[in-house]
Structures are given as C-alpha cells and as structure tokens.
Amino acid sequence: MGQDVGILGLGAIRKAVAKRKKGFCMRTLAYDLYPYDAYAEHLFADL
C-alpha cells in the first residue's frame, strides 16, 4: 500500500524533505500560498 505525505509550504527545508521522500514511493500532497507548478511537477506533488 502507498502512503501519503502532506507538506504545508514549499520553502527550502520542505523542498529538501520532498526530494528525500521520493525514494520511499510516497505520494506528496503540498500546499503553498504561491505555488510554483514547474517545481511541483518535478517533485511529483499534487498542489
């Protein structure tokens, strides 16, 4: 079964967390006031 990770805001630290979790086959759900869609696609995040 897959797991989900929720991230509030995509600052420098949270971007690093999102990069590291990619190795664990987890889906990322992210929220940011000023979303950067190209970076979200790079992280495979659902904004």
TrEMBL record:
Residues in D-isomer specific 2-hydroxyacid dehydrogenase NAD-binding domain copies: 2-37
Domain of life: Bacteria
Organism per entry: Polycladomyces zharkentensis
Classification via InterPro entries: D-isomer_DH_NAD-bd (IPR006140), NAD(P)-bd_dom_sf (IPR036291)
Name of protein: D-isomer specific 2-hydroxyacid dehydrogenase NAD-binding domain-containing protein
